[in-house]
Write a structure and sequence with these properties.
Number of strands: 25
Distance between the termini: 49 Å
Radius of gyration: 23 Å
Number of helices: 14
Helix content: 25-40%
Shape: globular
Strand order of the largest sheet: 2-1-11-10-12-13-14-15
Length: 525
C-alpha cells in the first residue's frame, strides 16, 4: 500500500463548518429556502440557536436520537446543525416514506423527539399529525412540528469526531429489516471536505440542492460540502425540471443529481422546445445510480460541459470514487478512489483477492466507512471486516490509470430515481394482500433509471387485477417503491431447493415490458 499524507484538518462537529462562516463572513449568503427566502450565515446561526432551544424543550440531550422527518428546507438545516451542537444523533427520514416505515424506525432507534418539517412538506405535516406533534417556531425558518418525551436512553457521548455519531440514515438491506447506518462526524466531514475540494467548491458557488438531505448523497456531498466551502445552497424539496431549468438560467454554478433527473430535464426541454442557457454552470455530476453512457453524451452535448460520475453507498458516507474535474472522460467510469480511500477486489466465492484489472467484489477502507449498524452487531460484522474493510456487494474492476468501473451488483438492490428500493420491502407489502400467495420483485433498467417489477402468484381460482394490487400497496409503500408493473403468474421459476431464480424473472420482465410475450402472464414461467 502506498503511504499517504496525514488526513486534512476536520472540525470536531458538523455545526462548526457553518459557525466558521458565521464568524468570518456573517453577511454572506448561506441558504435560499424552498420559498425563496435568503438566509445569511449570521441568520443561519441564529436559526441554529433557536433550533437548539426547541430541541432542549423537547428534552434532547447528548447521545439522544432525534428523528427529523423532512424535505429540504432551512428548518431542516437548522435542526441538523442543532443536533450536532447538542451531541444528539440526527436520524434523517424522508417525509415521503409510508407511516408504517416511520413507526418501524422509531421503534428501533427510540428517539427522544420526532420533528416534522411541515412548512415545506405536506407529507411531514400528515406524519406529525399522526404523532400529535405541536408547532414550535424556529427563527428565520417558520414553524416545525415536535413530538417529544419518548422513553429514550441516551448513548455515550465521545469527544472524538471519529467515534461520535453525527447522523444516522436507515437502509433496509436485503432482509427488508431497517438498519440504521451510524455515520460519525469524521465520516461526513471527510466526504464534505475531500470530495468538495475535488469538485473545486468555493465561497463563490451557488449550489442547487434538490438531492434529499435525508439521503447521504445530499447530506454529505451537497449540503455539508457546500457549507464547508462557504458557498450558498438553494434548498429544493422536490425535483421539478422547469424549476431546475429556471435556476440554471438564473446562475446556478453546481448541480448534482441522479440520472433520472437529467433524463427528465432533457425530456422537459424537448417537449417545451426550450433552448436552455446555463451561463454560470461550471460543474455537474451524476450519482446514486448507474449512468448510461448514451445519456451522459446527450447531456454533455446539451450543456457543453462534462457530466462527472461517481460511486458510493450509505455505509461509505457515501463517496468511494468520483471522476476528476480536470480529467474529462468519454466513458462510464466512476472515477478513481478518493484520496485516503483504499480499494481491493475480492472473489466472492473464494474470498481471495482478484488479479489486477479483473472484476471482483469491491471492498473499501478509509475515513468514510461507517461506525456500524445501530443495535445490530451481527450485520455490522458481516459487512465490515475486523481490519476495517467494507464489503460493498458491488462488482467492479480498476483500469491501470486507477479509474474504477461498475460491472454489476452482488445484491438485488434496485435504484429508482436515486432512491434505494429493496425487493423484500415491496414483496412484504404485496404478500399482505389476502389473495397473494407468493411474489418476487426485480429491477428493470430503463434509460436514466430503473423500474420496480413484481411477479405475483395468487390463490388458484381467485381473481385480482394489476390495478387492484397497485391500489393495495399504494399506502403501504413510498411512491418510489411502488411497482411500475405487476405480472400475475401461475408459478415462479425455482431451483431444486425451491429458491426463486430471479435472473429468469429479470429476462422475463424485459420481454413483457417490451410487449414481446403477452401470454406469459397467464402461463408458467
Amino acid at each position: 500500500m502506498v503511504e499517504q499524507a496525514p488526513l486534512p484538518y476536520l472540525p470536531r462537529r458538523l455545526h462548526q463548518v457553518a459557525e466558521r462562516w458565521r464568524n468570518e463572513r456573517p453577511s454572506a449568503p448561506a441558504l435560499i429556502d424552498h420559498d425563496g427566502t435568503p438566509l445569511t450565515f449570521a441568520a443561519l446561526g441564529e436559526a441554529v440557536d433557536s433550533a437548539v432551544e426547541v430541541l432542549r424543550r423537547a428534552g434532547v440531550r447528548g447521545g439522544d436520537r432525534v428523528m427529523l422527518i423532512n424535505e429540504n428546507c432551512s428548518a431542516l438545516a437548522a435542526l441538523l446543525l442543532a443536533c450536532s451542537r447538542l451531541d444528539a444523533w440526527a436520524v434523517l427520514i424522508n417525509a415521503r416514506i409510508a407511516p408504517p416505515e416511520i413507526r418501524r424506525i422509531a421503534d428501533h432507534c427510540t428517539p427522544r423527539a420526532l420533528v416534522f418539517t411541515d412548512g415545506c412538506s405536506r407529507d411531514a405535516g400528515r406524519h406529525g399529525a399522526d404523532y400529535g406533534a405541536s408547532a414550535q417556531d424556529i427563527t428565520h425558518c417558520g414553524s416545525v412540528l415536535v413530538a417529544g418525551e419518548r422513553n429514550a436512553t441516551p448513548e455515550p457521548v465521545d469527544d472524538s469526531n471519529a467515534d461520535q455519531v453525527g447522523a444516522m440514515i436507515y437502509t433496509s438491506g436485503t432482509t427488508g429489516t431497517p438498519k440504521g447506518v451510524m455515520l460519525t462526524h469524521r465520516n461526513l466531514l471527510f466526504i464534505a471536505s475531500v470530495s468538495g475540494q475535488q469538485r473545486g467548491l468555493s465561497e463563490n458557488d451557488h449550489v442547487y440542492a434538490v438531492l434529499p438531505v435525508s439521503h447521504v448523497f445530499g447530506l454529505a456531498s451537497t449540503f455539508l460540502g457546500t457549507l464547508t466551502a462557504g458557498g450558498c445552497l438553494e434548498l429544493v424539496p422536490r425535483f421539478d425540471p422547469a424549476h431546475l431549468a429556471d435556476a440554471l438560467e438564473r446562475g446556478i454554478t453546481v448541480f448534482q443529481g441522479v440520472p433520472a433527473m437529467y433524463a427528465k430535464l432533457l425530456e422537459y426541454l424537448e417537449q417545451q422546445g426550450r433552448d436552455l442557457k446555463a451561463p454560470k454552470l461550471r460543474y455537474m455530476s451524476s450519482g446514486g445510480a448507474p449512468l448510461d453512457i448514451d445519456w451522459k453524451r446527450r447531456i454533455e452535448a446539451r450543456f457543453g460541459t462534462a457530466l462527472n460520475n461517481g460511486y458510493g453507498l450509505t455505509e461509505a458516507s457515501p463517496t468511494v470514487s468520483q471522476t476528476l474535474i480536470h480529467a474529462r472522460r468519454d466513458d462510464d467510469s466512476i472515477g478513481p478512489p478518493l484520496p485516503w480511500v483504499e480499494v481491493r477486489f475480492v472473489d466472492p466465492t473464494t474470498g481471495q483477492e482478484c488479479p489486477p484489472g479483473t472484476a471482483g467484489e469491491l471492498w473499501v477502507r478509509g475515513p468514510n466507512i461507517m461506525k456500524g449498524y445501530y443495535r445490530d452487531k451481527a450485520a455490522t460484522d458481516a459487512a465490515v471486516t475486523a481490519d476495517g474493510w467494507l464489503k460493498t456487494g458491488d462488482v467492479c474492476r480498476q483500469d491501470p490509470d486507477g479509474a474504477l468501473f461498475l460491472v454489476g451488483r452482488c445484491k438485488e438492490l434496485i435504484i429508482r430515481s436515486g432512491f434505494n428500493v429493496y425487493p423484500p420491502e415491496v414483496e412484504t407489502a404485496l404478500n399482505a394482500h389476502p389473495l397473494v400467495t407468493h411474489c418476487a420483485v426485480v429491477g428493470r433498467r430503463v434509460p436514466g433509471n430503473e423500474e420496480v417489477i413484481a411477479f405475483v402468484e395468487i390463490i388458484p381460482g381467485s381473481t385480482v387485477s394489476e390495478d387492484d394490487l397497485k391500489n393495495f400497496v399504494h399506502d403501504r409503500l413510498a411512491p418510489y417503491k411502488r411497482p411500475q408493473r405487476i405480472f400475475i403468474v401461475k408459478a415462479m421459476p425455482a431451483s431444486a431447493t425451491g429458491k426463486i431464480q430471479k435472473h429468469h424473472l429479470v429476462a422475463t420482465a424485459e420481454r413483457l415490458c417490451r410487449g414481446e410475450d403477452d401470454e406469459i402472464e397467464q402461463g408458467d414461467l
